[in-house]
Amino acid sequence: MENAAELDQEACYRAVLTRDARFDGRFFGCVKTTGIYCRPVCPARTPKRENMFFVVSPAAAEEAGFRACLRCRPETAPDMGAWRGTSNTVSRALALIEAGALDEADVDALAGRLGVGERHLRRLFRQHLGAAPVSVAQTRRVLLAKALIHQTDLPMAQVALASGFGSVRRFNETFQALYDRAPSALRRHREKAGEAAVQLNLPYRPPYDWGAMLTALAERGDAIEGRRWSRPLVQAVDGADGVVTVEPAGEGRVSVCVEASDLKALPGVLARVRRVFDLSADPEAIARDLSQDVTLAPLAAARPGLRLPGCWIDDGAEPPNDRLTDETLAARAEAWRPWRAYGALHLAMAGISAADLMETDDAQRAA
Asked: Between β-strands 36-38 and 67-68, what pairing exists: parallel, antiparallel or unpaired?
């Protein structure tokens, strides 16, 4: 599923028939008779084949006029890791969009930050996500708003603010257009007066080596207490003062608690949490590609949930998954693209150096 045009429609339908969890977040099914799009694992009765088509992203579904299913809730699906690595430009663009790059600027400005033309950026988004950058940004706002509606007791005005909408009016209009109802109608319980903290569950694709991640974060000086990570928020960096805490919350979910003086900072904080904990990683794709290397194959199989600890502040010059700090690995690591950083991490965890690799290669050639 490296781009939207190559999505195998028949294979997608077979996955939907069996509700195969391996494909959750990799594509979404649009049901023509209901106008709803769903995850492959949706518990509702599977529609007939002729009534469905499949897209690679929620943005593509919503741009086509479909609304998110209220049963399987697409906002709770793992992030779209299937295409990550196929286009460094799209990966960098999405990271910027997650941090709010299109909330106050246009696509032309975003393209300028990436060093590409606006038309080229739009073409890449169509190719890999099946939707325009603006549609991707709006869908992310809507899905974050839905998560806040379902998982918190924030008043609707604060939900609008925290999910990146410029005004409550725009928030209400968007939900009315997409769901034919006011956003308050999606909430099954009464909202309370505004609370100091926002607590959300963010999804990821299992497995996840939490022990290795928390150890790595502690070794670099992050605040870790038990299995809980925390970081203060600073106005100059995060757009608000406060604190964010993160801890595992069960298979495929991480619990994030944000106390912020300004809820407008929430989308950017969540984007940084995703980066620090590498929540968008696709373990299956990483293991598949790294296993082509005879040295990495057993290492990747032994630790399929190994993730890259990310930086809270990141310039986005290149995707973290392809960064390589050990230049002595550069020649060998070309074969690991786009997962060079994961390959280097597996070697480091196993105590294998570049010199060891060269000795192994020499021995194999001599044999």
From this structure: parallel
Q: Are 342 and 325 in contact (CB under 8 A)?
A: no
pLDDT of the chain along its 367 residues, tens only? 456 667 899 999 999 999 998 899 889 999 999 999 999 999 999 999 999 999 989 999 999 999 999 899 998 888 765 445 557 788 888 888 887 888 878 999 999 988 899 999 999 999 888 899 999 999 999 999 999 998 998 999 999 999 989 889 999 999 888 888 889 888 865 555 545 689 999 999 999 999 999 999 999 999 999 999 999 999 999 999 999 999 999 889 999 999 999 999 999 999 999 999 999 898 988 999 999 999 999 999 999 999 999 999 887 667 788 888 888 888 888 889 889 999 999 999 999 987 777 766 655 555 5
Beta-carbon contacts of 77 under 8 Å, excluding residues fewer than 6 positions away, are 24, 25, 28, 39, 203
Peptide bond into 206 cis (omega under 30): no
Phi, psi of 341 (to 5 degrees): -65, -35
Residue 265 burial (CB count, 10 A): 23
Contact criterion met (CB below 8 Å) for 59 and 30: no
254's tokens: 């991480």
How far is Cα 128 from Cα 3, in angstroms, rounded to an integer? 4
Which one, of 69, 65, 67, 66, lies nearest residue 24 by Cα?
A: 69
Burial of 270 (0-12, 13-18, 19+ CB in 10 A): buried
CA atoms within 13 A on the CB side of 10: 0
